[in-house]
Design brief:
The chain is mainly α. It is built from three helices and no strands.
Amino acid sequence: MANKTLKNKQKSLASEIVSSIEAKLSDAGDATKKIKKSIEKSAEKLAKKLAKLMNKAEKKAAKPAKKVKKEAKKAKKNVAKAEKNAKRTANKAIDSIADTVVDVAPKTASAPPRKPAPKPAATSRPKTTPKPAPTPAPADTTADNA
């Protein structure tokens, strides 16, 4: 559809250019068939270029409207996403609170579990075993008995 209107614009513009050039040319003098033909060709080329430029300008004017629509759609999508995320975090918070309540309730009802006895802290020095005390040499028991 847009292509047909573009071609119609080109044709009408070309005919206007031709008529205005021929009017100026008739004031100057006679125009041959060759001159008329070249004027028509040049007018068609010029009309084609001008129609493209006008079409570009129209598209640029229409672009901001599309951009606004696109941004509105994007904003709507982001709002929906934010709501979804808010629901998810709320559900996570509720679940975590429920889990902590369930975990805390059994602990308070029963006696707290006993902790294993603490082990002595390991020292960095190796332990030395004490040497046995020297035993006194056996004394002469015969001298004491006599």
